[in-house]
Amino acid sequence: MLLQAGQERNPKPEISLVIPVYNERESLPFLFERLLPVLEELGRSYEILFIDDGSVDGSLALLLAFREEHRSTVRVIEFNGNFGQHMAITAGFRCSRGRIVITMDADLQNPPEEIPNLVAAMDAGHDTVGTYRVGRRDPFFRKIASKVINGITNRITGLNLRDYGCMLRAYSGNIIALINESAESTTFIPALGRKFSVSPTEIAISHTEREHGTSKYGLFKLIRLNFDLMTGFSLIPLQVVTMLGLLVATLSLLFVAYLGVRRLVVGPEAEGVFTLMNVNFFLMGITMFCVGIVGEYIGRIYQEVRRRPRFVIRKVYDDEA
């Protein structure tokens, strides 16, 4: 079919859906089945961007097969290795064209049926729509740990997000442009979006238990992610370390003065050796903790000055690529 004068070959969609994928071969067929009806019912133009984050289980083949069936609305970005969820989303932001950009995971723990609620909140005039999970189907210890970490993180960063771990979120094009200008080697997308937002809001969404595949976030990755979040958006950990050092130094000085006076009054004694050893081990623990915090910031500086690419795209499967 010939294009009419002034008609765009691929007009910009109103909604861009960005979905990072890492070894989700078992979940993808169910995601495809539920996702398209939701987007079609919106009655708006849309595009779906899948970012394959170095999958080794055949997820890319499923994504490409799905794209062949829906070439006009589906685009696939293939990474040259595994660079992490937030870098995959960042790459999706770089390629997105929609007025509203929505992020979600591929594991179906946040139902695609919640997408219209995010769009409605954006239509109400908000530039960032966050979400928090109600009725979470996670293990009890994980829910408690998440609640504690969310509280600590809010106190440190001042961002006041109710649920940092929920990735079903919506952003306006202006917020996406600001995020794209940020060249940080490591970042946390929901916090960065909230930082730039002028009229943010949060809505409750449902949460379901993972039915297919396994979680890609182990304990170490969760700790690593929270370190990135805290050190990337606040200097409070460094300031706390400074104040803690001053407090310990003051208490140590007072303790030395006490021991000096006691020696003059009571005389030399061999008692209290184990107490002093315990005090010494305690101070060593504090010192190691402080060095670790400082090391986190130094490590971030090291990553920034190297200026290595944050991610490497092997290929973009797009009619315009």
From TrEMBL:
EC number: 2.4.-.-
PANTHER family listed in its UniProt record: UNDECAPRENYL-PHOSPHATE 4-DEOXY-4-FORMAMIDO-L-ARABINOSE TRANSFERASE, UNDECAPRENYL-PHOSPHATE 4-DEOXY-4-FORMAMIDO-L-ARABINOSE TRANSFERASE-RELATED
Highest taxon, organism lineage: Bacteria
Keywords linked to the UniProt accession: Cell membrane, Glycosyltransferase, Lipopolysaccharide biosynthesis, Membrane, Transferase, Transmembrane, Transmembrane helix
Gene Ontology annotations for the cellular component aspect, listed alphabetically: plasma membrane
Xref: Gene3D superfamilies: Spore Coat Polysaccharide Biosynthesis Protein SpsA, Chain A
Pfam families xref list: Glycos_transf_2
Main EC class the enzyme belongs to: transferase
Domain Glycosyltransferase 2-like: from-to ranges: 16-169
Keyword Transferase: yes
Listed name of the protein: Glycosyltransferase
GO MF entry, a single one: undecaprenyl-phosphate 4-deoxy-4-formamido-L-arabinose transferase activity
Keyword Transferase annotated: yes
TM regions (residue ranges): 240-261, 281-299
GO terms of biological process kind: lipopolysaccharide biosynthetic process
Organism of provenance: Aminithiophilus ramosus
